[in-house]
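=== RUN LOG ===
request id: a7f3
mode: sequence -> structure
chains: 1
length: 410
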Amino acid sequence: VQEEKIFAGKVLRLHVCTMEGAEWLEEVPEDTTVEKLKERCLKHCLPGSLEDPKTVTHHKLIHATSEKVLTDTKTVLEENIQDRDVLLLVKKRAPTLLPKMSDVVAEEKRKQEQKAPDKDAILKATANLPARSADRSVTHHNMRDFQTELRKILVSLIEVAQKLLALNPDAVELFKKANAMLDEDEEDRVDEIALRQLTEMGFPESRAVKALRLNHMSVTQAMEWLIEHADDPSVDAPLPGAAPAEAPAEAPAEGAASSAEAAAGPSSEEGGEEAKDELTEIFKKIRRKREFRPDPRAVIALMEMGFDEKEVVDALRVNNNQQNAACEWLLGDRKPSPEDLDKGIDTNSPLFQAILENPVVQLGLTNPKTLLAFEDMLENPLNSTQWMNDPETGPVMLQISRIFQTLNRT
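=== RESULT ===
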């Protein structure tokens, strides 16, 4: 008996598979190297093709259970392969070819060509152009004109909405609905999300409501106010004018009743005109009920600069309670004037005609809630977000904004 056979290792029977579906049984001693086992497998499935030495190195054996790639220099025993284990013979993927130097240079050149010019290149290219300096005051003035134009649009649309509601056979009922919404107590119109944020910080609910109303529903400003007035004895005192909210609400109700009588009266043209005129007057009364509320802190800050209280209130009203803009208005030409805020847009202008011809706007103008939104945004521009998110008034505001932006770009 030969010595190598006496001391030979244990023979293992291994199942070998290929990606093409071939399958066979290989019997090898456990001290056989993986490279030798791979050669035997290749001879079995690729007879006569092992003349190329790269054939062996271009294949690998994988242990099916552990999904481990077997190392060529290790033995079957060292790779912990057991009897009846399944091995997979796979051809290695071709290595990724390194790009040619010419291709690398061409790609780098392309990137450089697409790269934005630096400051020196811009100055060199624009050296012969006439110098122009942008006037910041002009830019700010244009921004103010933009806001003023939007106000004019709202003023004119309110007039159109009033006329449409007056012409409606159910004008009185529609008015009652709008009047009920307009008479809602301001205490009930607090942003619930903002209130929850403040109460979760530990502030009392009544105090948080007061802070939000004083700061136009701004959580950040309300929080600052609460911290500043934490030790103020009058911090929980109700806001002035909050209690007697029911008295003025009765007058329009009487107007509604009188308009109802007018609508129920004679159907002649004279009676109809009287009803419409009366309804228009009632809408004017409703609008007067919505007084502008200046930011108390902005009023104090601007008055400390030496400005009169009435001037400060006018400045804040013109500039939507923006303290810095109000200060520039007071120091500048004071345009637009507070009286300009009540002027509407030219009804024959292409902008207003385009807005009125929009079907979404036309439908929205017959909704009393749209009238409420327009009135509220005129006096409280910061409330525009809630109306933009409202399912009834949001689409109308979106169309007006799109038409405005489109025509101002042309």
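=== NOTES ===
Residues 136-144, 243-269 have pLDDT under 50 and may be disordered.
The radius of gyration is 41 Å.
=== END ===
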